[in-house]
Design goal:
Blueprint lengths: L3 E8 L9 E6 L4 E8 L4 H19 L16 H23 L7 E10 L2 E7 L3 E6 L2 E4 L6 H7 L6 H6 L5 E2 L12 E6 L5 E5 L1 H4 L4 H10 L4 H14 L6 E8 L47 H4 L15 E2 L39 E2 L28
Parallel strand pairs: 8-12
Antiparallel strand pairs: 1-11, 2-3, 2-13, 3-4, 4-5, 5-9, 6-7, 6-10, 10-11
Helix pairs in contact: 1-2, 6-7
Amino acid sequence: MRKITYSALTDVGMKRKGNEDAFIVAEEYGLYVVCDGMGGHASGEVASAMTADEMVAFMQLHEDDGDLPYEIDMSATGEEQILSNSIQHANDKVYVAGMKDAKLEGMGTTVVALQEVGNHFVMGHVGDSRIYRLRNGELSQLTRDHSLLNHKIDIGELSTDEEIRAFKHGNIIVRAIGLKDYVQPETGLTDRQPGDVLLLCSDGLTDLVDDWTIENVIIQNVDDLDHGAQILIRMANDRGGKDNITVLLVRIDDEVAETSHEADADEIPLGISRFEETTEPSRDKFDPDDDDEDDDDYDFEDEFDEDDEPDEERTKPHQPAFDWDEDDDDFDDSVEEDNYDDDEITVNGPMVPPPIPPPRRAAPQAASRLPSIMIEEDEEDLPSIIIED
């Protein structure tokens, strides 16, 4: 029997006024998505919610359509091409919305997506949100951040360990949804094995909680994903909670006899055969003092030294990178707060008609529900231009 259990939780963190993260789970397509919005005011939350919704809408429209509308990598599998197209479709919608409404101009979001297809999973991502996999007690990062740090490593500007450790702009990303009329998602495949736990998360977690700690928490809570998600959120908040935090855990509960690679993936329907109730998203700060009895094994005061403060530069909210050669006349690097009016912002997200069950999501349906002030930041805004890859 093929089984999947999942749990998801998002939290505003300790420093932000609102939550610009969003997640969605569309059971009909075995699709899991986490987005981390940017842009200030309400626009970051609009971008993340639109991206999640539009990916599901694309899956509905092109489930059996071999004629994909966006550029594809001919070396990629058909499943990768569909997931990549869904991300490019979402990019179009967010970009056009930003162009039509000055209050939303410059909004963007990262995205990580995981889709269940037969005996494997398809992965897609843009930005620095991540996918991890716990297998046989070891945690592996399956995605590579589209960050300025990795970009400089790739082009040879940073080569030594000392140069990499000294780099102070780890919060800057070079690829995001919605900032240009085209984006190139990165896709890949990972096999499906019983006992695996996959983690999709925003950088609000990974900037403050290191990989070995995440590994230990998942191992200790492999049978209770809800509790594991709560602990990861609490750990990030205990260490400053400088950003919104979203955690989506997916456990493979297949019986071993049903995972033979001899099976034809095309004969296995997409979708989730079983899932546990998703943890409802929090709109308030996660209270680190609100411990339950199951938390007795975790002493957060002993987990880290109060004097060992995280690198402020690396835990700043991510920003798109500046390209000095780019013509930025069509982009405004800021939104005038005096002209901002929440009541004027509406998002006409796609409606997914029956019989598809409504996806479980963590973002509001309309921007009019958002608070008028989303971020308190003193750092200098960067133009909404990303580096050409």
